[in-house]
Amino acid sequence: LFYSCLRGSDRVPLFPSPARTHVNYEVKDNVAVIRINDPTSKVNTLTRQLQDDMMEVLNEVWGNSAVKSAVIISTKPGCFIAGANIDMIKVCKSAEEVSKLSKEGQMMFEKIEKSPIPFVAAVNGTCMGGGLEFAIACHYRVATKSKKTVMALPEVMLGLLPGAGGTQRMPKMLGLPTAFDVMLTGRSIRADKAKKMGLVHHVIDPLGPGVKDPEERLIEYLEEVAVGVAKGLAKKTVTVEKKKGLMQKVQDAVLGIPLVRNQVYKTVTQKVMKQTKGLYPAPLSIIEAVQAGVEKGPAEGYHVEAVNFGKLAMTPESRALIGLYQGQVACKKNNFGKPEREVKSLAVLGAGLMGAGIAQVTVDKGVATILKDTTTEGLARGHDQVYKGLNDKAKKKSITTFERDMTLSFLKGQLDYSGFEKVDMVIEAVFEDLSIKHKVLKEVEAVIPPHCIFASNTSALPIREIAAASKRPEKVIGMHYFSPVDKMQLLEIITTDKTSKDTTASAVAVGLKQGKVIIVVGDGPGFYTTRCLAPTLVEGIRILQEGVGPKKLDSLTTGFGFPVGVSTLIDEVGVDVAAHVAEDLGKAFGSRFGGGNVDVLKTMIQKGFKGRKSGKGCYVYSAKKKDKQVNSGTEEILKAFKLTAPPAVSGDEDVQYRLVSRFVNEAALCLQEGILADPVQGDIGAVFGLGFPPCLGGPFRFLDSFGADKLVQKMKRYEDAYGNQFTPCQLLLDYAKDPSKKFHK
Amino acid sequence: ALKPLGKTLSKPGVRNVVLVEGVRTPFLQAGTTYADLMAHDLARGALQGLLNRTAFPKEAVDYIVYGTVIQEVKTSNVAREAALGAGFSDKTPAHTVTMACISSNQAMTTAVGLVASGQCDAVVAGGVEFMSDVPIRHSRKMRKMMLSLNRARTLGARLSLLGSLRLSHLVPELPAVSEFSTAEMMGHSADRLAAAFGISRLDQDEFALRSHVLAKKAQDEGLLTDIVDFKVPGKDIVSKDNGIRPSTMEQMSKLKPAFIKPHGTVTAANSSYLTDGASAVLIMSEEKALAMGYKPKAYLRDFVYVSQDPKDQLLLGPTYAIPKVLERSGLTLADIDAFEFHEAFAGQVLANLTAMESDWFAQNCMGRKAKVGAPPMEKFNLWGGSLSLGHPFAATGCRLVTMVAHRLKKEGGQYGLVAACAAGGQGHAMLVEACPQ
């Protein structure tokens, strides 16, 4: 995406322009080598300065008759162009303003596409969004196979669309089905995959050390190869068109039929609706823009792209998603400084689902890890879990089998404490029982070195209670991982008032190394995430008791934007775990955490309905059938515990808001009590850890867009029907009273 | 003219180990005259040739160590089979070693160890590679089925196993041509290496041409005296290497890259080619050799093995090995009179020379304060190298050591340095000192 790009081409500047800082070029053997490097940032983005410089250079290049072809390359290590600058969109006040940006970008890239001389994009490093749109406007693409070379059109994840011709060029380049896949998922594409798809023409392997920094040399080498290609293009010894395979020809022929294309649009739209429940406008806008271009020609296509881009930028969904993106970036930083010593070896206690998962994400980053369990069976199971996790990656070819083996060599499974005298951190993932945690803590403290940190992966037990058994509470911290550990991005770190800053810095550093998005919260029963989850689940049980079936409850929750319905969530978490948490937190917080009857869960446990792990919970699980059936046993239990639903607050929408308001109110309480340091971490924790609807951006973003006053009104109605579980907290009341107060600026 | 001898590298309390003789079969391109033989046939040729040339009493051979890379499954200990077939005493034990392209270096240094420690007085070392025939296996699925078939007791069980046979079972498995750890072909890695060091196609072609021209000259002048004739049953006597083919720069420039397409620089013409051949050397304690009336050719002095990143530094062994071996013996590059480097690829040799000339590389990759420097070309591979003479993987090491000994004698030098890279990211260097004439 580009704007203000036509300066200079239409008029001769009266004064020599100020020095170009972001783009420069030289002519080598009739090839203009245009180099990009934003000196003010670690990455190149399409800022105004970069665009102005680029336009000036392009005009000079086009005005130079000695130049027969051109190469566009970035000299910034690991980054071609990371995309448009989000701030450029954020400052716009209206859809029209944003559309204008899009139109200017479209025109700019069209000029390159229609350039009298061929352009080669030489891509090394991040090439996303506007960067990729720039590259595909060029006539030929050479890319390095460096791990940092990633191509994507991630606009959809920000609630936007590729607004600088992306929706128009992609279908032509990749065919409709692949183009939709790339734009609707926003997925990252590595160079060799891009070559296979036809997104790039030519790939280059990364280089090892030579007589200078390898990255620097790789960029030089990329330039050498790209210049060679550019010369070939000018001499017509290299052609842009690739020979199409049979499959491609067949696909093209079939998609040449308008009826077939209509079917494609229909299918894609249905798929999008199924996955988004219609809560996300961007995918539909993308389909619309593509369809306009393909069916009605480029003029209409570009027009719809620009208009839709403007509209999308003004949607609350886009604001929410951009907020999440920026929050995620913020939660990938260590705000506690550099730890005194790096954690180079780590031990995990308990080889269960969580323990093995933690071990996996740790060895994955080359950290020596001891996985300790009390039984050989447990250990073998845990080891297999790690192996399977890595082997699955090898099967998908994201790592080689050799890398799998090497990674696995960092893992040491054992039953005793040998070697613990050398570890820098111990993370316990043993059974959630305070006395067991105390026993383990004492055993560990007897063998670990003084600097070693003890972290507890508990989901609800207050860390200060665990630390009470410690001789060195300043070294005790909570690290709450989410299951499955290798898939879930969030890590919730819990500090007590005794936890030292260095211990926190160390835990954050380990989490970052493990690739986690991290929130650091204060100590208390359930910390932040579990504390928000518990009342929501308890409310879910009440709703079930009131006669809303598990399937209906699921569809109401997913219909609101939660990725997993409440009934399914209970099964996934485990009925026993849910009961444990509900009871524990119920004791800690009293009647506010009431609602559904915990005995429902207890009866389910008695009957063996412990959720997915036991094959039965709210649903019956079988390996054969994909479509899960409601467990009739659970239905009977629910009948036995039946409650009468007050009609005034039991409509579908009210059911949804009862769940959401309890979640949001508890989140607000956490902020009010200082468990949460800021709303950003609250939003990130809720979305990445608990699946709060991303389109709403998290509880605080939701309050900002929905209005605290509106939620408070609803809660008052529910309070009348049910009592203090729905009493809005003081913070909510404050924000409701003054609509100008917002959690996010 | 002999230059005044520098200090000798003999060490107090350590036996002097000498190279008495070194021979090899002619090196032939795979698929040519040797095509119908087996690996141990070539090995026999080299071993018998060594016995013939030295007239060494068989029973005085204490031990035999032999190298091979691609193993013929029928002769997994090819050392033993070849020694028996070559008429060595059946009382002489023999074992086979493997270390990719430095397998016969490993065989020789094993022999050096045996002699230096006093375990043996006379050891035969060598290596063989036979690329005209390589073991091609049934697929894993097929092998599994065949093995189960062996164990199946009833006809029904056998038939049901056979019934599981699918077309995919019949797809054969070729020997790995790529590095196991990185799944990268060596030529591909060499091309990347050349690119990393900025070695141009032109430089590589020029170096390859130099190798062929020098080899041709050496062949014509009769300097390749390590060759022993080999009689192929039913065919002529082979007495010359057949891969030496000086071409022109113009012809070489026409070739397309062999590994990285289309922009790579490594081609068939600037790479070593698949070769059949075998070599053998007689290594003894100096004492015993002199007592038996032999005139040893050279002392085998300090040697080192090194290993590094198999991905990006696969073929940089010489760069790492040379400073180490020089330091160990207290010599500098300037003390060396004759260099013999294994030439896997022209780009690889030039990358090593560039790395040795680079302070950046020394400081950032080797943890050294400064570069060690590169050998002068007027002392470097003057009789051709693996690019032109051929490269039977496990036979090359002995060829290098024998050639450097012969060159020292011919050129009147005192110190020779042998260096080679090998698959797996390993390398080797050895100092050879001429014996007093």
Automatic annotation (TrEMBL), chain A:
One Pfam short name: 3HCDH_N
GO biological process: fatty acid beta-oxidation
Span of domain 3-hydroxyacyl-CoA dehydrogenase C-terminal: 526-621
Positions of the 3-hydroxyacyl-CoA dehydrogenase NAD binding domain: 346-523
Keywords assigned: Acetylation, Fatty acid metabolism, Lipid metabolism, Lyase, Membrane, Methylation, Mitochondrion, Mitochondrion inner membrane, Multifunctional enzyme, NAD, Oxidoreductase, Phosphoprotein, Transferase, Transit peptide
Subcellular location field: Mitochondrion inner membrane
Protein name: Trifunctional enzyme subunit alpha, mitochondrial
Gene source species: Pygocentrus nattereri
Higher taxonomy: Eukaryota, Metazoa, Chordata, Craniata, Vertebrata
TrEMBL record, chain B:
Domain Thiolase N-terminal: 17-287
Molecular function per GO: acetyl-CoA C-acyltransferase activity; acetyl-CoA C-myristoyltransferase activity
Reaction equations catalysed: octanoyl-CoA + acetyl-CoA = 3-oxodecanoyl-CoA + CoA; an acyl-CoA + acetyl-CoA = a 3-oxoacyl-CoA + CoA; dodecanoyl-CoA + acetyl-CoA = 3-oxotetradecanoyl-CoA + CoA; decanoyl-CoA + acetyl-CoA = 3-oxododecanoyl-CoA + CoA
EC number: 2.3.1.155, 2.3.1.16
The UniProt record lists the keyword Transit peptide: yes
Keywords on record: Acetylation, Acyltransferase, Endoplasmic reticulum, Fatty acid metabolism, Lipid metabolism, Membrane, Mitochondrion, Mitochondrion inner membrane, Mitochondrion outer membrane, Transferase, Transit peptide
EC top class named in words: transferase
Cellular compartments per GO CC: endoplasmic reticulum; mitochondrial fatty acid beta-oxidation multienzyme complex; mitochondrial inner membrane; mitochondrial outer membrane
InterPro entries: Thiolase, Thiolase-like, Thiolase_acyl_enz_int_AS, Thiolase_AS, Thiolase_C, Thiolase_CS, Thiolase_N
BP terms from Gene Ontology: fatty acid beta-oxidation
Subunit structure: Heterotetramer of 2 alpha/HADHA and 2 beta/HADHB subunits; forms the mitochondrial trifunctional enzyme. Also purified as higher order heterooligomers including a 4 alpha/HADHA and 4 beta/HADHB heterooligomer which physiological significance remains unclear. The mitochondrial trifunctional enzyme interacts with MTLN. Interacts with RSAD2/viperin.
Biological role: Mitochondrial trifunctional enzyme catalyzes the last three of the four reactions of the mitochondrial beta-oxidation pathway. The mitochondrial beta-oxidation pathway is the major energy-producing process in tissues and is performed through four consecutive reactions breaking down fatty acids into acetyl-CoA. Among the enzymes involved in this pathway, the trifunctional enzyme exhibits specificity for long-chain fatty acids.
The name this protein goes by in its record: Trifunctional enzyme subunit beta, mitochondrial
Gene from which the chain derives: HADHB
